[in-house]
């Protein structure tokens, strides 16, 4: 176990999402001599710093990172916002300093059974679904990780050996598991699509980070993969543990699948129906995938069919994920701020555009080195008007939409775009914020962007 008490610990990156605060607080409570360093200013970090006022004795180095702090530290804790190519991370490794992240610390100190979920899309919804399914059987189950509501280090000391924790794990968090060579008992990979290519050297490098979720699994562990994804099908052949699949068609392997309006589960060549696809409360074809993944996990963990059917019948809404936030004069407003890739945005267009509704789309932002050709075709098919927020991704979008007439460019004020869209809308229309791009050129994070959209909707009269 990594010893923290009395050690000199440098936390590189505090951030604004909450994970950095939870990490700093946990390290402080463990008795670390702690320096927190972040490139952002004290003003920008105020909300995070305010939450750490109770932790007296933490030293802050803000607006910069310093080599002297790396030399000082016994352990360097890397926030997900700090890339592995950072010269300070490279210096720490050169000096043979242990470099860990919040996931390293969590897995190292967690006594509970860990269920881990990753993937490019759908991991938050799948995490929430698996959490709900397990809580229906055992109320002590906890959901945490790469979600806004519960950072993993906020809960690690509450977990007991006979409890279960469901973790959403980002690619950056997964990179920390190599340091202690561990993996979740049950791992789920929802899918793989191009993303974060502004952060990773290549698509293969990004996919490799996702593979970390099962790299150190053992023979008695379980891996659940999307059978509709050819890369993930191939990964099933290299897993050490049991492999289950899920898919929207019958994949002929063990796991859940949909066929003729029913969801089935196959194990040991025995196939049994679980429920109807019409029982699924979550709308959208992409959410059927998420439900199938969650059903496969629930069956592997012994959740009865009656509980599975009961849980998936209940509506589940996560903030900023195709979230209907209001209706005015017959116009529906949808906050899909977490759609930071073209693929994610396309899912929203298909969901809200297939019933003949006109979509007035607000999109754009910072580029993650992604391709927008398919997204542009979807926009042309489903959208009546488009407002593009300022950003280098928006520049690429406008080129892909060069023959699309109803396009409005270079918005820095989201409220203005919402107001203009509402003025041009008619009853039955959908005003959709689904950016298909990152937010960091105009906001601190995507949820801040979504909150501004919600405020703009509330102000409309």
From TrEMBL:
Its EC number is 6.3.2.9. Keywords: ATP-binding, Cell cycle, Cell division, Cell shape, Cell wall biogenesis/degradation, Cytoplasm, Ligase, Nucleotide-binding, Peptidoglycan synthesis. It comes from the Bacteria. Residues 117-298 form the Mur ligase central domain. It is found in: Cytoplasm. GO terms for biological process: cell division; cell wall organization; peptidoglycan biosynthetic process; regulation of cell shape. It is an enzyme of class 6 (ligase). Coiled coil: none annotated. Belongs to the MurCDEF family. This is UDP-N-acetylmuramoylalanine--D-glutamate ligase. It comes from Candidatus Komeilibacteria bacterium RIFCSPLOWO2_02_FULL_48_11. The lineage of its organism: Bacteria, Candidatus Komeiliibacteriota. The gene is murD.
